[in-house]
Design goal:
Length: 688
């Protein structure tokens, strides 16, 4: 029987906030059976909202880069900084090509008035997409500067070189600064592919550790976030929320709030909000409004997994698998919250029919579109500026907070800052999709996998295809009617799919009586996958003897977003309590741009993944979130942190891939496999 592969490829902007929007995405490629996925909000997680369509990038150097008369270099990108440190890695890329010091370079990021259009900062696409773009821009600028110097000196350009912010004549010794050559003028030269871009093997600035370019401002508190902003005459805003999801406003008595000194009340359909000059009066003002809501009965977290399967269309038709041993299991994944350090915040200011909003979003141009549509404005009249943002993890694709702030500011006639509370962030933001994953498989006694059938309900198609060499593979994603609002999350559905797949790999290995690492290597033909497995198991010293009661070892491997990952886990189970003792994680994402920064990304992903693996789960009932506070929703603490050992596999012969997402997929399956090794009990539902 020929190999069958069914998996989805999303190739367009997502509108995760619009439950009635349905887009079709077709899988491209030869020799594959096509799964035509019906796109709804439930699948909007798979990519970020980025405006109406991809737009051609500007071809003039000046749209991306400016050199002042003093030689300062300003670089423009629609990408945004949310703590992942792309400000530094992109600076390294430009400095390498322009042959100047990183200290001379400053990035302007995520400003719809100043930067070129960008679909958004998501999907680990900054390093593979924007870094090459800015390298090409900087290389073109470098060659342009050499050309200017050659014309000025009437010299052969082959004897000229760009070095440390200057163009030097290697024969005469003459030199001119970049600023002397450009005189601060806009660089109208067209970017062409002729300029040589430096290969990774020749990088002098990239490929090496470099401290965050704004590290001092971060640690001294000088870096300002949206929540730190204060404009002259600015008011503070708050929205009156329904008492449950899907509730409709029946009536509202706003007079008691309107009579409060300095309070502005806004009523627009089902939207009710207040603004005042003292944030301490926001809660009393909203509580003074007597709103009556019509609610509808809804399901709960106890019935979630049965609900997802029963609302996912026709039942799956399983195919027979010819094998010596078989395995069959179902895995569950709970809704979890993004829990960013900085809850949603926006500052809105109107000047006539022109609107400026400062907000922490991953998609500034997408939010500009939302604002323009909400207020009937041309997009040219709307400016969205993204200050440094206190994390997002895929949770800040939508612009509801920006729209709410703008509504309040328009009614008040003054700038308004709207800061969501932690409880609002837990309740009214979207969640990582929950899911059910059913797997059936078979293998020969030799360990060769002969068949694999993998069905994901609701959580998504990212990372759904097995990286192992498996004939007769079926991997399908089934959209479901999600009872909660859901959308993008760090790693998308790859975390759920890796949890199920790598847990099941251990279950099939156990059924075949083969040690789990050997079983994976038996079925891994991809040399990059084999390399990360070898790197993690060697550092971990896989196969060593256990030396205490309750000790367990677990392993996993995977591929997503152009990166390969493998993790080995050591934990202890005492009285049904899990303590993670040590994690060794290897990662290969092509040519490494900044080793220290990459390690930080991986460690951060591991820490975050521990929460999803062990404790994080949204509880809900009848349209209400039951644990909307950090006192009730347990993210990892310092006391939960194990020893973490990161092994980097540097491939300078390969293009650089992103690293913000893939490392998070490794922890849950490694934990589940280690728990089985310690106790003989197979846990199949996250959190474990």
């Amino acid at each position: 029987m020929p190999e069958i592969e069914r998996y989805e490829l999303h190739a367009g902007p997502a509108y995760v906030f619009a439950p009635d929007r349905r887009d079709f995405f077709k899988l491209l490629g030869g020799g594959l059976v096509v799964l035509l996925a019906l796109r709804t909000e439930a699948q909007g997680q798979e990519s970020g909202r980025g405006g109406r369509a991809d737009r051609g990038r500007p071809r003039e150097i000046g749209a991306w880069l400016h050199i002042s008369e003093l030689g300062a270099v300003t670089v423009y990108t629609g990408k945004v900084e949310m703590g992942q440190n792309i400000r530094t890695s992109l600076t390294q890329a430009v400095a390498d090509e322009l042959h100047t010091s990183p200290a001379r370079i400053e990035l302007v990021m995520g400003d719809t008035m100043l930067t070129p259009f960008d679909r958004g900062t998501f999907g680990s696409r900054t390093t593979p997409d924007m870094a090459p773009q800015l390298r090409q821009v900087a290389a073109a600028a470098r060659e342009m500067l050499i050309g200017l110097a050659a014309a000025k000196w009437q010299a052969d350009r082959t004897v000229l070189a760009a070095e440390d912010g200057h163009v030097r004549n290697t024969v005469s010794g003459a030199s001119l600064t970049f600023g002397e050559l450009t005189k601060g003028q806009k660089l109208t030269t067209t970017i062409t592919p002729d300029a040589r871009v430096t290969p990774a093997s020749e990088w002098k600035i990239a490929g090496h550790d470099m401290r965050k370019v704004n590290a001092r401002s971060i640690v001294t508190g000088q870096q300002k976030f949206t929540s730190d902003m204060a404009l002259p005459g600015m008011l503070h805003g708050r929205v009156v929320r329904p008492n449950s999801f899907k509730a409709q406003l029946i009536s509202a008595d706003i007079k008691p709030a309107e009579q409060m000194p300095g309070v502005v009340v806004v009523r627009d359909g089902d939207f009710i909000g207040v603004a005042c000059d003292d944030s301490a009066r926001l809660r009393p003002a909203t509580e003074a409004i007597k709103a009556e809501w019509k609610t509808v009965p809804q399901t709960n977290s106890r019935e979630l997994y049965a609900w997802l399967k029963s609302h996912a269309g026709a039942p799956v038709e399983w195919k027979p698998i010819e094998a010596d041993v078989h395995a069959e299991a179902s895995y569950n994944v709970a809704y979890i919250a993004h829990t960013p350090l900085e809850p949603r915040c926006a500052v809105a200011q109107w000047e006539g029919d022109r609107l400026t909003v400062w907000t922490g979003t991953q998609v500034p141009f997408g939010v500009r579109t939302e604002l323009a549509e909400a207020f009937g404005l041309p997009e040219a009249n709307v400016r969205v500026v993204v200050p440094p943002t206190g994390s997002a993890y895929g949770g800040k694709h939508t612009g509801e907070c920006a729209v709410e702030a703008a509504r309040l500011a328009k009614a008040a006639g003054k700038p308004v800052k709207l800061q969501w509370t932690r409880e609002e962030e837990f309740t009214w933001a979207y969640f990582r999709p929950a899911g059910v994953i059913d797997v059936r498989s078979g293998a020969l006694k030799s360990g060769a996998i002969t068949g694999w059938q993998f069905h994901n309900y609701n959580s998504g198609g990212s990372g759904i295809r097995s990286p192992y060499n498996i004939p007769n593979q079926i991997a399908e994603f089934h959209a479901s009617d999600s009872p909660l609002r859901q959308g993008s999350y760090r790693g998308l559905a790859a975390s759920a799919n890796h949890f199920a797949r790598e847990s099941h790999m251990d279950e099939l290995a156990h059924a075949a009586g083969i040690e789990p690492v050997s079983f994976r290597m038996k079925n891994a033909s991809d040399p990059r996958l084999r390399a990360v497995i070898e790197a993690s198991t060697e550092r971990f010293r896989w196969g060593r003897t256990k030396h205490r009661a309750g000790q367990g070892f677990g392993v996993m491997a995977g591929f997503e977003k152009g990166g390969y990952v493998s993790a080995c886990m050591e934990l202890t189970v005492i009285n049904n309590k899990v303590r993670i003792d040590r994690v060794v994680q290897s990662f290969e994402c092509g040519a490494i741009v900044n080793p220290d920064q990459l390690k930080n990304q991986i460690v951060g992903a591991i820490m975050m993944a521990i929460g999803g693996a062990l404790s994080e789960s949204i509880e809900f009932e009848d349209g209400r979130i039951l644990n909307p506070r950090l006192s009730q929703y347990r993210v990892p603490r310092f006391s939960d942190m194990p020893e973490i050992d990161v092994v980097l596999v540097d491939r300078k012969d390969l293009p650089s891939a992103g690293a913000g997402e893939t490392p998070i997929v490794a922890i849950a399956p490694a934990v589940a496999n280690a728990i089985f090794d310690a106790t003989g009990k197979r846990l199949r539902s996250m959190p474990l």
